[in-house]
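Quick one: structure tokens for this chain, please?
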Amino acid sequence: MATNNDINDINDTTIPAFGLGTFRLKGQVVIDSVKNGLDVGYRVIDTAQIYGNEAEVGQAIAESGVARKDLFITTKIWTDNYAKDKLVPSLKDSLAKLRTDHVDLTLIHWPSPGNAVPVAEFMGALAEAKTLGLTKHIGVSNFNIALMKEAIAAVGAENIATNQIELHPYLQNRKVAEFAKSQGIHITSYMTLAYGKVIADPVIEAIAKAHNATTAQVTLAWAMQLGYAVIPSSTKRANLEGNLKAQQLKLSDAEMAQMAALDRDERLTDPAGLSPAWD
């Protein structure tokens, strides 16, 4: 079966390379996507409190018959729940929806708007959640270098498993990625396919043709070859199966250079009031 790293071998510094995202998927759509994903071999599921689909993800997992020990489940704490007295209760609520006693990874979803809750406070609360056994690993999402430095000061780089950021061929986010790497913090790429924009890119199409692959497979393989984790989503079983095959694709140095040249600092997710000052 085509799966990512053996889940049982995951340690504090390793994030599975390949997972299933659930952003924007709700109701029966997300249930079907997760069940199909698990059926074709996915074992990593990424959700978030703000997605409003944790209960459906939990239902899909329960109905899939896949054992909890074989799964790696990620959720993200929403900004309303960052305060020290709110974070752990909100995570317990997420666990109830997901029908599990722990998740494998819990992330801070965005920086606190207006720094209403200091980084040290919410990272401390997140570390407490880990101590309580509610989550095996903790991390951040959408953090710039300055915020990563604050998070490191609060809990130590060794306790920050990943920074999940928008990263795709048109926004390669090299400064953030290089800083994270220097600290031993993994990068998880979201929106790796740039909302589907990469699918018709002529450079990627040419590489795909050379490998008898799809442009999605090439793009996902590129990100993983750089050492990033990817969490693509799809509502179509054929695409879920196709995306999985990216794990077997190896690009040449020349092809990686062609992909690197596509960077144009094109940010697709930049919500006012949430986004930090990007590097």
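The longest strand covers residues 135-141.
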